[in-house]
Amino acid sequence: MPTVFVRDEMDAEEFRKKAKEMVDYIADYLENIRDRRPLSSVKPGYLRELIPDEAPRDPESWNDVFRDIERVIMPGVSALNSSEIARFRTK
After folding, report:
1. CATH architecture of 12-53+60-89
2. For position 46, what pLDDT does the model report?
């Protein structure tokens, strides 16, 4: 079995802090969904160019991962709760 080294491990307090940041991010997303594009602005497969072929050997910081959510993940999200989509579904 390979040896796994854990660096800069989060303690419980740091985990709580980061988890609350993520909950705030999600709440802000839902609260401001009208300001986002209702449909994805990227082509299928866009993610392949933005992420490495393999998982990193060394852990990335939480702040880097958190930034990647907006930079990498969110352009591919369709906001199905947006008022634009709701209006389309009721026609």
Report:
1. Up-down Bundle (1.20)
2. 93
Instruction: Give the DSSP per-residue string, the chain.
Output: -------S---HHHHHHHHHHHHHHHHHHHHTGGGS-SS--S-TTHHHHHS-SS--SSPPPHHHHHHHIIIIIGGG---TTSHHHHHHHT-
pLDDT for 33-76, tens place per residue? 888 888 888 999 999 998 889 988 888 888 898 899 989 999 89
Torsions phi, psi of 66, nearest 5?
A: -60, -40
Which residue ranges make up each domain of the chain? Answer: 12-53+60-89
CA dist 8 to 5, 14, 26, 57, 58, Å? 10, 11, 25, 14, 10
Q: What is the pLDDT of residue 90?
A: 53
> What CA–CA distance (Å, rounded) separates 75 from 31?
18
